[in-house]
Design goal:
Elements: H1 2-5, H2 8-27, H3 38-61, H4 66-88, H5 98-105, H6 107-143, H7 155-165, E1 170-177, H8 180-187, H9 189-206, E2 212-217, E3 220-226, H10 230-245, E4 251-258, H11 269-292
Antiparallel strand pairs: 1-3, 1-4, 2-3
Helix pairs in contact: 2-4, 3-4, 4-6, 8-9
Bound molecules: guanosine-5'-triphosphate.
Length: 293
């Protein structure tokens, strides 16, 4: 439903209806210059310009996604309402079609309602990002264990965090970008760095506040999910792979689950890391095998 409401198709309909309304209004009787309230024209024109400038700012500042679509749709509705109010100033009311009075009232409230939904989701998104940044910032200050390129935790940091969390059930996800050396060769090392940074930021935004992501090595990331089930981590791994695909590359994923209460032998950080590395090698081999035959 949300997708339908915010689809490009709907945006096209709003633009089209704006054009149709303009044509309709062209047939109505215009007011004499002396009877036009120029103060109203100025204020309504200013509101329209403000709506359009907010739209331009949103388009510039926000990444593509559900929240941005809601904000755009809301601002388009609001701007359309302002535009119709402005046109209204230039035409004699009784010469306008009867349905115009009804239609005129709709875009602004619908637009403002959608905008409010968008702002609410933006707020939720920002709270998650702030929480992640605060955790990262605190850890950075304490240990200076941050990767130079992506500015997320490095391998030493995740080892430290796994050790801290290993008395409770935890899951680890490893993501390894496929054919990253080719991406480097094709686009250059700097673009490769940029892609690693984008992936790191995207992963940070996708996780729960208690999860941690690190750049483990080259094109390999590890995510620590404390207190979660194996099913949850499996679903999360698939979700993260899909999100990485949106950035134009593919990642292999491996995941392990460790519950100290049910395991026969307790595992330390090294054995957990070695376990997930082996899982990843198995996944990579399974991927390479069909290509080899
Ligand atoms: N841009 C950039 N590249 C890096 C960095 N660190 C490592 N790399 C590159 O990452 C690539 C990793 O190569 P491989 O381990 O062979 O992985 P791959 O090419 O993705 O191959 P598969 O994993 O088998 O799909 C190498 O080409 C490294 O040069 C870095 O900090 N920035």
């Amino acid at each position: 439903m949300l997708k339908f409401v915010t689809s490009k198709f709907t945006l096209a309909i709003i633009l089209l209806s704006s054009i149709i309304l303009s044509l309709c209004l062209l047939q109505a009787e215009t007011k004499l210059s002396a009877s036009i309230d120029w103060f109203d024209v100025a204020t309504e024109g200013a509101l329209l310009l403000l709506g359009l400038s907010w739209l331009a700012l949103i388009l510039q500042a926000r990444p593509a996604g559900k929240v941005t679509q809601l904000l755009i749709f809301g601002l388009l509705g609001y701007s359309l309402g302002c535009y119709m109010d402005l046109l209204d100033e230039f035409f004699i009311n009784h010469s306008l079609p009867a349905w115009f009075a009804l239609i005129e009232k709709l875009p602004t409230p619908i637009g403002l309602l959608t905008l409010t939904c968008g702002l609410w989701l933006w707020r939720e998104e920002q709270i998650t990002i702030n929480e992640q940044l605060r955790t990262r910032e605190q850890f950075f200050r304490q240990h200076k264990l941050v990767d130079r390129v992506t500015k997320i935790y490095d391998a030493r940091a995740i080892r430290h965090q796994i050790a801290l969390n290993s008395s409770k059930p935890l899951s680890l996800i490893m993501l390894d970008i496929d054919n990253f050396s080719e991406i480097n060769q094709r686009n250059g090392f700097n673009r490769g760095d940029r892609l690693l940074t984008d992936i790191a930021q995207m992963l940070t935004c996708q996780l729960r506040s208690q999860d941690l992501v690190c750049r483990f090595a080259g094109d390999r990331f590890i995510i620590l999910l404390p207190n979660c089930s194996a099913t949850f981590s499996q679903a999360m791994a698939a979700e993260l792979q899909r999100a990485i695909a949106h950035l134009g590359c593919h990642a292999s994923s491996a995941h392990i689950h460790y519950d100290p209460q049910t395991e026969k032998q307790s595992q330390d950080v090294d054995s957990l890391i070695s376990h997930i590395n082996k899982e990843m090698e198995r996944v990579k081999q399974a991927r390479a095998w069909p290509q080899a035959i």
